[in-house]
């Protein structure tokens, strides 16, 4: 289904189960400076947008400064690593169509040109699913700033062969046992999609996801080798990213059309491994839980997280999807404001299940 917006600001929150003070509390947070660096907040429940904010702020396009931007519903914005969650969705669509191998297939068999690496016994058990869950067990360092050439994603982008760069990383843990955040693992997922479909990732996305969801405008940044970044390169408007969130809540169906199987949606959001900091990780989705007044116990949420405070939040139990765009790129505390908006404004004011 698509989304409708009620013209009356005062009526919408209550009609979809929210405290009528939700917007006033959010505005107070903006005015007080408690909620900082926000570019866009857009949230919906039951096909109704109940929260919509567009600000002005300094922005970037994959690291290139854009200056101050006045954001609106038509403004493209970096998703950064929320791109990963969409790459996972595209893998599921390709899998449904029989275009890519099942997730338990050998990862190195998908890259026969690196047979020297495939012969390493330590790599023999690594599967595509280990890439989708970031449990390859291979060395990778994205804890450094993305301005640092020693950051593994930046080093991959600068490498003469991005796939060899990823596939030859040292094996430091048994595959499937340790979560190591890795844009490289998603680059491999993107490559398998491209090899299986015979199309560049943006072209496949346009055909099987964007056009069916009536997403006409997007940009997908590519490296010096022309390869679109499956890990961080996608730019979408906030309403269009919200559609993708709603697609998950609707179990893969949009306007009566099956876009991706319900099975893939469930597998994507099923926690596969602990991240070590209180969250879990599915297939390119973060998983956690949060208290909600409407429920008697914390309820699960799922999210795509991106550098600078980019978020696509989902709470299926409440039927809520929320998009947050922010401009706090490369800052250690960029997570604070999007988390406060989600937990202290949206979920705290949801009163009626």
Describe this protein's structure.
The protein is of the alpha+beta class and 353 residues long. It contains 12 helices and 15 strands. It folds into 2 domains: 12-78 and 238-349, 3-Layer(aba) Sandwich (Beta-lactamase); 85-196, Methane Monooxygenase Hydroxylase, Chain G, domain 1. The chain has helices spanning 12-15, 22-32, 82-96, 115-118, 128-132, 152-158, 162-167, 183-197, 201-210, 238-249, 262-269, 336-346; strands spanning 38-45, 48-54, 56-61, 64-70, 77-78, 219-220, 234-236, 253-254, 257-258, 273-274, 280-281, 286-290, 299-306, 310-315, 320-326. Strands 2-1-15-14-13-12-11-10 form an 8-stranded antiparallel beta sheet, sandwiched between helices. Helix 3 (82-96) packs parallel to helix 8. The longest helix is centred in the N-terminal third of the chain and has 15 residues, at 82-96. It is globular and about 65 Å long.
